[in-house]
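Incident log entry.

Two folding requests arrived from the same account within the same minute. Monitoring flagged them as a possible duplicate submission, but the sequences differ. Recording both here for audit purposes.

Request one:
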Amino acid sequence: MRPLWLCRRCGHPWPCGAAKVALLAEYRDNVVSLCLYLASCLHDAIDDLHQLRPNDTGSTAGVFDRFLGWPARHNRSYRLATTASLDEEESS
């Protein structure tokens, strides 16, 4: 729900847990496109939230993490797990 950037289904800040799962499924083959989409959402959210509450938009780090931090953490743990699996296969 813009301009509040809340999930229409659960009312939590978007992207909520369900939205993250849906986004990962939708962009499973193209992480770069996911990050570009979320970066554009971040830009829009900063503008919307600032217009609603100019004195209380939250920390920059918090807003950044909300939109762009979680895919980086998700992909990093996926890469680490994949690398570990490949290393195990090579040593076998």
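Request two (distinct sequence, not a duplicate):
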Amino acid sequence: MTYGADRLHEEVAYVAYHFHWPRPEILDLPHAERVRWVDEIARINTRMNEVR
């Protein structure tokens, strides 16, 4: 099974936007770790939106 290029771009853009990490550094992350960061950012955003 291959990982879709569109999904990869979404993950990289999401992490880069929120954490300001450079693209090469994000791409060097193992897939599972990158997805874990995406999930953590989503949780942070959810908590922040609930406070408002």
